[in-house]
Amino acid sequence: MHFSAAVLLSSIFSLTNALPAPQSGSSSKAPAPGRLNVNYNFNKATLSSGSKSTPLSLIKSSGPFTIKAYNSESPIHMMDINVSNNKFWVGNATNSTCPEDRPRNPLQSCPVGNVTALLTTSTGGARMDSGVFGGQAVYIGPRAQLRFNPPAIAIGRDVQRVVFALQPNPIPAPPGIAAFTFSGVGKASGYLACPVAPKGPWQVFADLGSIQDSWVPGGDLSDCIGFDALATNYTSPLPAAYQYV
Fold this sequence. Notes:
245 residues; four-stranded antiparallel sheet
């Protein structure tokens, strides 16, 4: 079993008294360690009224953030989670594109595009921090893959209907770290990293508890590693990429 980050926050700035003991989450093939309370202060977008005492159970609307895999008993611990080929990966570089007439210069109209960043929305969705017209939504596919869509292409009707959010993450970690979670599919909220080769890269799946061997690379679910997705602020005057591919 690994532990999900599904805990309730009564005050962003008083987590010591607000957080209950960790709860067991969905099952996975590799355990994550126990967790400790930490201070949490993601960014100003977490407060809808500007009040520092605003009570929140989860944070649906955030500024841009990057994510890392957390499982200290695994080879993927604290590795970046990046996107490529419209999927999420541990151990792969970010894949993005930019029109040839827009120079790759952070001070001009086209970002460098080598960082994977995303945001959560007030409606419980998530999207890539890209500047392309139409946006790029994040979703969980019918076979539990964590994916994002190309711009101007609608997400299919057979996707998993979930709510994405940031939640306070009670682990031994620096202040400012949250967990990127999902809810709406039973008690599932964590992720699996399933290897394409023995030493990676690993494709990211939602740990729905109903994944079949045939859905994952290599065809063996027991090779997958359970983890939580840790989010930290990404600060830039421009979107992290023009378009992720």
